[in-house]
Amino acid sequence: MSNTTSQPGPAAPGALLEKIYELLAPLNKANIPLSADTDIAADLEIDSVSVMDLVMTIEDVYDIMIPINRLSEVRTVGDLAETVQALIGKE
Amino acid sequence: MDLFEKFGPLLAQRDQLTAIGSLPFGLRMDRVLSPTEAIINGREVILAGTNNYLGLTFHPDCIEAANEAVLAEGTGTTGSRMANGTYALHRALEQDLADFMGVRGAIIFTTGYQANLGVLSALAGAGDYILIDADSHASIYDGCRLSDATIIRFRHNDAEDLDRRLHRLDGDGSNKLIVVEGIYSMLGDRAPLAEIVRVKRAHNAYLLVDEAHSLGVLGENGRGLAEEAGVEDDVDLVVGTFSKSLAAIGGFCTSNHPNLDALRFASRAYIFSASSSPASVASVRATLRVMQSSPELRTQLAGNAQALHDGLSALGLAICAPVSPVIAVKIDDRDLAIMMWNQLLDAGVYVNLAIPPGTPNALSLLRCSVSAAHSAAQIDTICETFAEVGRAAGLVPAG
């Protein structure tokens, strides 16, 4: 497959995704099966404040900063993982 | 395709909530009788949700000042200060505020929301960091969103958490601005300001305190939480509002920084908003004088806050914070909160209904704000009405 702009970015490593699933579990009230394509707001019905709270927890787990400016483009669990991966890479 | 289609879920939620009971959005105060009473739905109601902390909205000096100003200078300024001119009254109020706060400068804004929007968006630029308390008011979030700074959130009222987050930025040479509030509007709790100041100093950051709900309420002279905590010299900027203790509308920023005036040329909320009307500015000047000459108002307010806090606690209701003029009763179930809010209103007590996502930690709240103008009898009635409604809801044991 050619790497066109319509392709998703580099996949986040599985361990990171698994950690995010784990942290999302208490918020996933309807037990929707989680995948990288799960839409955090639309599928899981998690509000923006809860997403920001989740991000604070992720910041502490990986000892990184995730500015809330970065969240405007995060829609799916995979987007979130990629954002975190990019910031871990910067440290 | 309908431009408004995106609001489908929002309107569906409104309809779902309205099916449970009336909502505050639909409430109309037919006539306001005094700082603590209004006619709503044809019934006289005690107002316990107006943020009218000192009860000065009907003070004769303030009404007279507003009257004189409207007669002398007209109903509106019809433009912004930058484009259409500053009135002597605007400057005079800025001087009054600087004198009252004991600092070099003050800038007034047309609303309190715009004060945060205008200050934060202009002050913090690309390469700067703003660290905000997780429970910050929407105006702080929106000000951050409009700025080019990098925004970091820290856990509510947790100075250690702030310290940890600042630690991640140590040594990068950027400017850091910490933003906290004197009293948080939803829960009524105060920032641990002395601890925040220690962290601020350790990381060489700036500190902005939003004293919207604490001005006129806390401190020996009513200057707010920073005065009460004895840390005014460590607070770089104060933002506040005229729409609570000062009983009008508008907002301000005060600071000792020699270049505070730069914000007048950089803050779009200041540059592009029409300036405050003469009546509003004149009434705020008068209210500020009344506030300074009547320290007993703060004593009265503190007494009323204590009485309501004690009364509601005695019923076994869960209150979110220690005593302050904001007394938020936690209701575990959102729908029950809506029903109780309606029952309180029907029984003659108006409080604020706060439900997720407008609240921290998805809480549902019946939020009261106390006024110095409440009589002891009114506080008793508020408590008795909560008792009745609480009993019907099974939250208060039968009498």
What does this structure look like?
The complex is a heterodimer of chains A (91) and B (399). Chain A is an all-alpha fold. Chain A has one domain (14-90): Orthogonal Bundle (Non-ribosomal Peptide Synthetase Peptidyl Carrier Protein, Chain A). Chain A has 3 helices and no strands. The termini of chain A are far apart. Mean pLDDT of chain A is 85; it is low at 1-10. In chain B, helix 8 (193-202) links the parallel strand 7 (176-181) and strand 8 (206-210). By secondary structure, chain B is of the alpha/beta class. The mean pLDDT of chain B is 96. The longest helix of chain B has 19 residues, at 296-314.
Short description:
By secondary structure, chain A is mainly α.
State the main characteristics.
heterodimer; A: 91 residues; mainly alpha; Non-ribosomal Peptide Synthetase Peptidyl Carrier Protein, Chain A; 3 helices; 44% helix; disordered N terminus; B: 399 residues; alpha/beta; Aspartate Aminotransferase, domain 1; Aspartate Aminotransferase, domain 2; 2 domains; seven-stranded mixed β-sheet; four-stranded mixed β-sheet; 15 strands; 18% strand; globular
